[in-house]
## 1
Amino acid sequence: MNSIPLGIPTARDLSVGRPDVPGLVDRFGRVATDLRVSVTDRCNLRCTYCMPAEGLEWMPGDELLSTTEVSRLIKIAVDHLGIEEIRFTGGEPLLFHGLGELIGCAADLVPRPQISLTTNALGLEHRAGALAAAGLDRVNISLDTVDRDTFASITRRDRLPAVLAGIDACRAAGIAPIKVNAVLLRGVNDDGACDLLRYCIDRDVELRFIEQMPIDSDNAWAAQNMITAEEILAILRSEFSLHPESEARGSAPAELWTVDESRHRVGVIASVTRPFCGDCNRVRLTADGSVRSCLFGAEEFDLRGQLRSSEPTESVDRAIAQRWREAVWRKQPGHGINDPGFLHPTRPMSAIGG
Ligand SMILES: Nc1nc2c(ncn2[C@@H]2O[C@H](COP(=O)(O)OP(=O)(O)OP(=O)(O)O)[C@@H](O)[C@H]2O)c(=O)[nH]1
Ligand SMILES: C[S@@+](CC[C@H](N)C(=O)[O-])C[C@H]1O[C@@H](n2cnc3c(N)ncnc32)[C@H](O)[C@@H]1O
Ligand code: SF4
Ligand code: SF4
């Protein structure tokens, strides 16, 4: 007798074809070893390319992971899944009260992961020493300009001095390397790119210019407005000589150039025009406890439900690790920004963890 399809959904096996290995492998041969943890979706700046002036509807408090829950997931990631680097991000991670404690917990793990922070640096002036003492290895600071008025117009807050003080405090605390991330916006801060590079060279900080991505909450991104990597390099070459860095890039998003044949380098993160998805080693955890295998992925895998469903036991941790593996196994090959059918991510960058 022929069977008649009834259209009844069957349980999907999310790991079809996945080899039985502990690490976070995907279908395209990549292995995720770099965990980016968003600890909050809130922020005290309102960068125009990231958030609207009025802010966003923040995640409700009871949906956010606690410090204990984040530490447990980080431990699972290192113990079971081969995670080697943990980056705390957001929203603005310095707004999360448990950040120092989380860094301390991560630093106690064996093998100890690299611990880094991506931040706007507001308040870092007073906290860099304590965070370094807790175990913070390195820091990336967002700074789009060293002109105070331009800074205020991009971030909608007059806080440039606090950011610069945060950079100085990181240097004094011995955090290294310090990197600066800058998004260039046409007609807004592109004429200040060389001044920003000079500022970073003077402080021995590595500057990277980022191509703006279509992950703003306003959906205002347009390819023709974006300043491309080629344009960024042309702007810099008007005042500096640049030579491609010989060091292998690996999974790093930034392509590097040495500046004026010195030991200083500048980077360009060309996510749109020269995507680096083929070598991606990233996986993300949102502040409300979902795994996102790609910044631009359509799928999320909730871990919070399992985390809160019962007492923490080794077998629950193993089940969480398995779900995490399934999430990464299904990771898409790339972001598809340049494809005609590209869909904006369902969450803005600040809610995913940049
Ligand atoms: N498309 C894409 N862009 C990313 C990804 N991770 C980071 N970026 C871009 O790179 C910028 C800088 O990211 P950071 O958090 O400073 O760190 P990083 O450059 O990834 O890491 P390091 O160079 O190792 O410090 C972000 O603002 C994004 O614009 C990613 O997984 N995919
Ligand atoms: C979302 S923020 C979170 C961490 C922290 N608040 C900060 O600004 O560093 C992380 C990074 O994302 C970058 N970013 C935000 N929106 C972006 C966009 N539309 N395109 C490219 N990068 C973006 C920021 O410049 C920042 O370096
Ligand atoms: S880029 Fe960072 S600092 Fe700027 S609004 Fe987004 S989350 Fe806040
Ligand atoms: S867009 Fe997705 S696949 Fe590409 S580098 Fe970023 S996280 Fe990895």
## 2
Amino acid sequence: MSDEVRCLACDNVVADHHDSCGGWQHRGCQTGLSRYKYNKLRSGIITFDFICNRCKFLSSQSSLSLPMPIMESTPMFNSRTPMVPRKPRPTPRGRPVERSGTVEQDPVEVFCRIRPPEQEEQEECVTVVDHSTVKLSPPPTSFAFRNGNGKEQIYKFQQVFGPNCTQKDLFDRTTKPLVSDLLTGKNGLLFAYGVTGSGKTYTMEGIPQDGGIIRRTLDVVFNSITEYQAKRCIFKTDGMNGFDAQSESDAFSDRRRQDALSGSRATRTRKTRQDPGGSNSNSQNNSQRIPDISRIDEIDEDNVFSIFVSYVEIYNNYIYDLLEYVQEVGPSRGLQTKIIREDAQHNMYVHSCTEVEVKSPEDALEVLHRGQKRRKIAYTRLNCESSRSHSIFTIRVVQAPLDAQGEEVVTEKENITVSQLSLVDLAGSERNVRTKAVGDRVKEAGNINNSLMNLRTCIEILRENQLTGGNRKVPYRDSRLTHYFKNYFDGEGHVKMVVCINPKADDYDETLTVMKFAELASEVQVQRCIQPRRDLGLPPGRRRANQLFKEVRNRLQEEGYNAKNEVVDLSPIYSLAPDWPAVSYCPDTMEEVITKLKTYLVKRIHNREKLNTDLKDKILSVRSHIAEMENKNLVLNSELRSIQTLYRDALGTIRNLQAQVQNAESANDSLLKQLNEYQYLKVECDVVREERDMAKVQGHLDKQRMKARLKTKLELEKERLKNDMNTKLTQQKSEAIDLVLPVLSTNQSKIYRTQVKALKEMLLVDDIRQTPRSSTESEPPAASATPGFRPRTNSDPSINTSQQQVVDLAGPAVVNLRHRRSRSQGCDKWVDHRPTQEVPTGTILKPTLTRNKSVTRVRTDDLAKNHAYCLTTQRQDSHGELETKLYKGNILPTAGGGTQVVFQDVEILQQRDPMATPQTSPRKRSSDGTPKVDHNTLQDRCAVGIQGYSTPNTHFSSKRSKM
Ligand SMILES: Nc1ncnc2c1ncn2[C@@H]1O[C@H](COP(=O)(O)OP(=O)(O)OP(=O)(O)O)[C@@H](O)[C@H]1O
């Protein structure tokens, strides 16, 4: 029996170790071998790694870089030290075990995205031929063209996304399958590759309103596992790229500790920084965010999930943790460089890198945003925000099954599945000639180009190995980037690449290089990652069953049953045991394998027996249950029949009622119709009635007008007749006296002459008193004698006919004309007789009534004590126009010892709407245009004033003769 010894650098078999002789035989490259590093195993055994002499020579010439030895000083080879060949490496997690000798492989999927032109009418060198082909046409300015390579080039991709493609389309086609893999426990790598400014960062990150690959991935992951998320801290990292699961109580105390720590950190950050890390802009971004709402359905519902994210960048070939906590107080150390390590499963990981457990896309985006702020970005001539480093955002999904009851997480480490998806935004390749970079930018560009070149070399060698069956060492370790990618290219998951292209002609030469690399990459095959299904022999659907059980229990409790202590019983167990253990034939470990298989089979037999017993019990219980159910069924059937009869009756009643309802509805309809007609008629009637009312009002107004005209005429006629009669009477009287006098004797005649003369005088006097005054005689004699009054003539325009009528009423027949009121007695004391409901005039000019006594009802005492009287009347028409009149007069004692008012003056205040036209403003006017006095009201109100005593029933017209 012999073991192979391979060269650490080129992986060629360089020696065989023979158990029989304990010696070594050179083989393969036949160049001999040297010790390179030694490994001390826990058991104390020391093993060696070797390199062949050829690789040793190449490394000494610096044309090959070797991985650093762990020990600087290699211990001297001691021939007595047993040289134990290295044990074969454990198969990396998820890597398919070669049983039949063939391994399923997938090509690296390469997609092409062409960004929209930067300017309109930009000269372009890229054309989309169809959904998977692009054509590159060299512009005359290009280096290739000038070197005589002016031919058009055709490149094929998995899919080409043109300038108008959406972020959603790109994500669905490129990344969604990787998200599905991630959630089912498989690893994936997606990286954006291209020239600077070609849209790699846009593709990976996008904008809040239209998220790129990273944002959408987070959305879809959380959309898919929302209901199945584990509580925070149930899973925690073991510091060696693995995870442990812990009980709920431990998780609770860890949560509290974390909260306290993050609280104190947040306080410290707030204290030291005014702008809390752009939290405002972050929340603003979140508010503008349009999340992707799609989800993956094929996930194991009986698992619980936790998501961890990390964010690192490779800058100048150093790795930095973008989420590292940097103390803000005290001397700041800045970000520390990290190293890449290999875990127990030979997976590469960034040692001591911060992994944040996130519970929502918003949490994850907050972390992403935090990292982005630390990314090295700088202005270059080709991109104002050019990434100067490669960034790797890794999402790790940790999942573990629920226990048999579907209640708690199974915490054994071997049941935990960890998968990861690395989303890489590579820095763009750039030529200093074009960027005109200086200083740091040149160094950065050099490092970027070197790492990209190394990626290209690795891919080239991989492809060559795959095509030729060669075994050339792939120089993953030459740069941090390829070192980190090693697992993926070695078969640790699906690899996809999005090649970003800027179609502008200036980029032709670089774009051509990118295309060549893309073509190369698409020919590389990576081993398909097949995640072994973990079968713990637990019933599937237990989470749902548990939920259902709890729901039923709650419902029973609500209905009054005591189901609180019922426990979930999710037996039967559907499988006999977990999957067969992975065993391989090896004579050394035969015993161990047989024991393992024996244990497994015993367990299976035990499970089978248990299941059989369980099955018998269940059959019995099901039978009794069925019998019980049948009895119930019989009862229920009879109940059903009676219910059906009732139902039929009810159905008949319902039909009757429906018919009635239909009748009622049709009656209702006809009534509604009638109602409508009546309403229409009513409207018409209302219109007619309004017209009639208007005509009536008009007629009434006409009648009033006519009545007033006739009344005036009648008065005038009466006056005229009266005058005629008086003239005639006077004439007849004097004629009678003249007839009587000659008949008398001289003595008698003397006596009688004197008496007749006196009688004649009396008669004449009486005539004079009774004769109505002509318009020139209309001024009351008392007026001129009354102090404090302004005499008016007819020429005064403010005095109109109605005023004269009022003035006429103040006839001086019974007044003591010689009455003089002394000023000392207060001849200017007024009785201000106002209407009961006075309309406020709001006028600026107001009559001056000094020392007035304001009354609404006049008593004789008021008149006796005061000397002047003012009566205010108001009239308001329907248009709101107001007419206010002030009748002023003197209070004089009458011959009979009473008091009377002699009106001397009328003031009229008319308030009119300036907008109203005479037509639109109907106004009560007399035929000569002067407003009419409302005699009735006036008479009623001033009856006391005129008479000196109250005569409520006296008509104004009948009093006029006495005045
Ligand atoms: N598909 C696109 N649609 C709209 N704008 C785009 C698209 N691709 C790129 N851009 C815009 O082009 C500019 C440069 O893009 P981006 O920064 O993503 O390039 P890059 O390839 O990451 O460059 P670098 O390698 O220098 O970081 C950005 O302003 C971005 O918004």
## 3
Amino acid sequence: MSPLIEARDVELAFGETPALRGASLAAEAGEVLAVMGASGSGKSTLLHCLAGILVPDAGEVHFDGQRIDRLDENRRSALRRDAFGFVFQFGQLVPELTAEENIALPLLLGGVRRAAALAEARPWFARLGLDGLGSRRSGELSGGQAQRIALARGLVTRPRVLFADEPTGALDSLTGEQVMELMVAAAREQGTTVVLVTHEPRVAAYADREAVVRDGRARVLSAGYAPGVAERVAP
Ligand SMILES: Nc1ncnc2c1ncn2[C@@H]1O[C@H](COP(=O)(O)OP(=O)(O)OP(=O)(O)O)[C@@H](O)[C@H]1O
């Protein structure tokens, strides 16, 4: 079976700073893949290349049998909107919108009519333990509540791949674990592949498989989680 999404020998430099130096990484359909590594190792850059946000200087990015690094910006943008979902460290909700409108936003941007988009957003409140919060704005939500809204926004279009960059990084560990449990359960329920960037082994433990990025190169660890394995495997 070929992977759903794959980076092959990807290289990318920001000016004189090499961020990726031949990174290869693949995720199968339905898999939860954690990407770990030290600060500055290139994790976010690799995620941005996989998601078609950045175009690598060299190497290839494939999604669902298509080479996406060769698509122009308009087509990559359409792909991100139609096939991918995103969750970032600080939720990044739109402060002027209610929680319900924030969840519905990717559908609205994709041309779904307002009533239909809000109807799609509503079940997420019960699913993520957020009942009664639909009309709140982001300033009236706790960090954990806001991140669950961001998670719902990332999944509401039923994306093929959810890209999550340090989704628990701004939360305390208990709240972070709740968000991870909800994220993995919701993704599995709808068959969404998850590429999860984290530097926390406790967060990576929710994944089916782990990869480590070190100095701009990725290596996949064997399935399953064992404390300390990342440190032992890295040369
Ligand atoms: N927009 C940018 N402009 C210049 N350099 C950048 C930019 N983004 C990242 N870099 C550099 O590229 C390298 C990889 O950064 P990246 O953000 O991918 O690492 P990371 O592993 O995700 O780090 P962290 O865990 O701290 O978020 C670093 O040396 C970083 O300073």
## 4
Amino acid sequence: MASAELTSLDEVISNSLKGKELEEFNRIHYGRIDQCALFISSVAAQKAASNGFEIKAYDFPARKEECRKPRIVRLGLIQHSIAISTDNPITQQRLAIFEKVQKIISAAAAEQVNILCLQEAWNMPFAFCTREKQPWCDFAEPVLTGPSTVFLAELAVKYDMVIISPILERDDIHGDTIWNTAVVINEFGKVIGKHRKNHIPRVGDFNESTYYFEGNTGHPVFETKYGKVAINICYGRHHPLNWLMFGINGAEIVFNPSATVSGLSEHLWAVEARNAAIANSYYTCAINRVGTESFPNEFTSGDGKPAHKDFGHFYGSSYVTAPDGSRTPGLSRIKDGLLIAQVDLNLCRQIKDKWGFTMTQRLDLYAQSLNEAIKHDYVPQVVHK
Ligand SMILES: NC(=O)NCCC(=O)O
């Protein structure tokens, strides 16, 4: 079976197991017997059916507390393929993606989503495999005035949503430099801040370091009307300290907008964002692109194999993990989709109280050790026999 044919691992299981065996699988694998699937309104279901995208919703309830009200928030994750082929003019490609995504966002609105996040570089093909500067750099946009921000700001106001928009940024104040950036737009359509990708891959066809540097915005947490959110962009999910810092700064939900392909990372996908949710007692939302993107000119991968035009298969499979480690099934590996998670943010503190990971994490010990380890003449702490 080709990589782009299997719909989802979750479906393989739910189609194969039944009764008690399926319950036991769910308990051990997902962390709960009942997936807590939520009803999808006919309006949203109709939008999904007529526009060819999947829509799924799950609940993450928390224990009722005496001293705090529940803090129920609806999160929306969108995964999608590009809309027209990459040899079309830039403006047409972008517009076609806007049209596709607008329909998915309107379904999210019909489902009362409060905070919505798109995939990495959602408004363009992931052309960084090519190492060509033109025309791909022309997709870069200023954060405040770029077409993607203008487009999403209007929808944010219309739907009373916070929208996270991961784009290729053009910083026209600092020498027209390019960055991989997530823009946070509040429910009034105002850009409340941005975060630039901290860790840039140099693996496989991910030649992103040809285009932009490691980010210089630290680990910001954005206090929104609905909760404290942060964004760990794609390759940052392999770096536990990147996740840790968002937790230290108080994040309750960390989105991980990604672009990654099956040949490289699919066996890691279900592990990393889930582990981060457990280790940091927050919700994580892992979002991946979908589809196979083909480029006009051939490129090589530096592995002795023939030059080719395809990046490989972006395998979707977006999912949400709660601070207790329970998770949703993934969206499809091959289809556009909207994943909705209704979460109670009170679960973050409840899990901190239960497991005590923030109390026991020994930041002081690691700060001292790391301070030593980064010195050029550091002697590793090894006891010789
Ligand atoms: N976009 C990106 O950082 N991809 C790198 C590959 C991966 O992290 O799986």
